[in-house]
C-alpha cells in the first residue's frame, strides 16, 4: 500500500488533478495585477501571482511559496474568490484566493510589471482569459470597496 495523489478517472485511465493557485492580494481597496514575462505566448498578459501546487504541498502553502518567489512578500491567505476555473483541455483547475500582505511591498522578481488596480481600473490591463470570472467577482464583490 502507498499513498496516492488525489485523482479523477476519465474512463481512459487515471490522471492526477493539477491545481494552479493564484492570490488576489488586496491592499487599500486595490488588487495587485502582475504582467507575465514568459512564456512568449503569455507575455504581456496579466494575472494573479501564483503557480502550480507541487506534490505534497497544500494549496495555501503553494500560494505562500509562490508569492515569496515571485514578489518577495509574505502573504496571509483568506477566502476563495469565485469557483474553480477549468484550464485548457487538461485536468487542470485554477483556484484564486483573496490575500493580504504581511510585511514588505511586492517587487516584480519574475513578472514584467506590477500594478495596483481599483475596482474601476480592472479593465485597464489585458487579463489572461481564464481570469475573467475572477475579475468580474472582484468588481462586484466586497474586496475592493
Ligand atoms: N499564476 C497564475 N496562472 C494563471 C492565471 N490564469 C491562468 O490562466 N493561469 C495559467 C497560466 C499558466 O498556464 C498556468 C500557471 O503556470 P505557471 O507557469 O505560472 O506556474 P508555475 O510558476 O508553477 O510554473 P513553472 O514555471 O514553475 O513550471 O496557469 C493566474 O491568474 N495566475
Please provide a written account of the structure:
With 145 residues, the chain is an alpha+beta fold. It has a single domain (19-140), classed as Nucleoside Triphosphate Pyrophosphohydrolase (Alpha-Beta Complex), CATH 3.90.79.10. 15% of the residues lie in helices and 37% in strands. It has two helices and nine strands; from the N terminus they run ββββββαβββα. The strands form two sheets. Strands 3, 4, 5, 6, 7, 8 and 9 form a seven-stranded mixed β-sheet that branches. The longest helix is centred in the middle third of the chain and has 13 residues, at 59-71. The radius of gyration is 16 Å and the shape is globular. The protein starts with 6 loop residues before the first strand and ends in a 5-residue tail after the last helix. Mean pLDDT is 92; it is low at 7-13. 8-OXO-2'-deoxyguanosine-5'-triphosphate is lined by residues 20, 22, 47-48, 50-52, 87, 94, 128, 130-131. Residues 20, 22, 47-48, 50-52, 87, 94, 128, 130-131 line the site of 8-OXO-2'-deoxyguanosine-5'-triphosphate.
Please describe the structure with a list of short key phrases separated by commas or semicolons.
145 residues, alpha+beta, Nucleoside Triphosphate Pyrophosphohydrolase, 7-stranded mixed β-sheet, 2 helices, binds 8-OXO-2'-deoxyguanosine-5'-triphosphate, NUDIX_hydrolase_dom, Nudix_hydrolase
Amino acid at each position: 500500500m502507498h499513498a496516492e495523489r488525489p485523482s479523477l478517472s476519465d474512463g481512459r485511465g487515471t490522471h492526477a488533478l493539477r491545481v494552479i493557485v493564484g492570490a488576489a492580494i488586496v491592499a487599500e481597496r486595490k488588487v495587485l495585477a502582475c504582467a507575465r514575462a514568459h512564456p512568449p505566448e503569455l507575455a504581456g498578459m496579466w494575472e494573479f501571482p501564483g503557480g502550480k501546487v507541487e506534490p505534497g504541498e497544500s494549496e495555501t502553502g503553494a500560494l505562500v511559496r509562490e508569492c515569496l518567489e515571485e514578489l518577495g512578500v509574505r502573504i496571509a491567505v483568506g477566502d476563495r474568490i469565485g469557483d474553480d476555473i477549468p484550464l485548457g483541455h487538461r485536468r487542470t483547475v485554477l483556484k484564486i484566493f483573496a490575500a493580504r500582505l504581511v510585511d514588505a511591498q511586492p517587487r516584480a522578481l519574475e513578472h514584467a510589471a506590477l500594478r495596483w488596480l481599483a475596482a474601476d481600473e480592472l479593465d485597464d490591463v489585458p487579463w489572461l482569459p481564464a481570469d475573467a470570472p475572477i475579475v468580474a467577482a472582484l468588481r462586484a464583490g466586497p474586496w475592493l470597496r
